[in-house]
Amino acid sequence: MIFLVTAGPTREPIDPVRYISNRSSGKMGYAIAEAALKAGHDVVLISGPVKLHSSRGAKLVSVSTSDEMFDAVHQHAGDCDVCVLCAAVADYKPATVSPLKIKKRGDEISLELVPTRDILASLGSRRDRRFLLVGFAAETHDLQENAVKKLRAKNCDIMVANDARVGMESDENELLVLFRGGEIKKFHRTPKQILARELIKIFSKFATKVFDKKNVMISERN
Ligand code: C5P
After folding, report:
1. Contact of 73 with 4, CB cutoff 8 Å
2. How far is the CA of 108 from the centre of ligand 1 (A)?
3. Ligand 1, atom 13: nearest CA belongs to which residue?
4. String of DSSP letters for 58-98
5. How far from chain centre, in Å, is Cα 41?
6. Which DSSP state fits 217?
7. What is the pLDDT of residue 38?
């Protein structure tokens, strides 16, 4: 199978030297890409700026902003069987980007932010969708409830939820895997590499179930 994996944060520029970003390390996404390769799959890894080395064998597409990630994902998704959107994409970006460095002044300044495009939701609503769609939800509260809402709102097949306070920057994670049929699997605190291996097994099993031999999604999607 061909896996598309997004990983890491995005950077939304304010001016030539400043940006808005988040603490995502990319470790979970890179571990998933690595585990998919080790299981014999092909991998397209679309990565925001991280301090990690991509696994040899993955096709690495490096991006910086949410708009670049949006374009790269849509360019490759149609060729893939499973899309795992693990990146911590910025939800907001500055309404305008100053072409010159904003100078320090004595008074207050404010920054107008506008929503970024939701990549996961845009894939979920693609009419030509033939791939299994997996989202990640990092939450600090009401983990399961929020993840179920996202699974439905973004029309995913699987949503992997984690407490952002446990998983961010860490080598370990604690996960809830929610399936569109309502089933839930829980993983207690475990190294990300081991979790990634388990997730790849789950994703490939699910993908095999919902694709017929010609690689066409069948009607059990509802
Ligand atoms: O709604 P929220 O940002 O918490 O959803 C998280 C999921 O949505 C992750 O899978 C993330 O990669 C994806 N996402 C996205 N594009 C955005 C925001 C989030 O693909 N602009």
Report:
1. yes
2. 31
3. 120
4. SEEEE--SHHHHHHHHHHHHTT-SEEEE--B--SEEESS--
5. 18
6. B
7. 97
Whole-structure pTM value: 0.92
- Calculate the alpha carbon distances from 137 to 86, 95, 133 in Å: 8, 25, 13
**Ligand 1, CB cutoff 6 Å, lining residues:** 6, 66, 85, 87, 89, 91, 116, 118-120, 135-137, 150
pLDDT in tens, 84-108: 999 999 999 999 999 999 999 899 9
Query: What separation in Å is there between the alpha carbon of 88 and the centre of ligand 1?
Result: 6
Give me the domains of the chain, ranges plus CATH numbers.
Answer: 2-90+113-221 (3.40.50.10300)
How many Å lie between the centroid of ligand 1 and the Cα of residue 34?
21
Catalytic, 222? Answer: no
Which structure tokens are listed for 2? 């061909």
In single-letter form, the type of residue at position 98 comes to S
Q: Is 37 helix (H, G, I), strand (E, B) or coil?
A: helix
- Give me 31's structure tokens: 């571990």
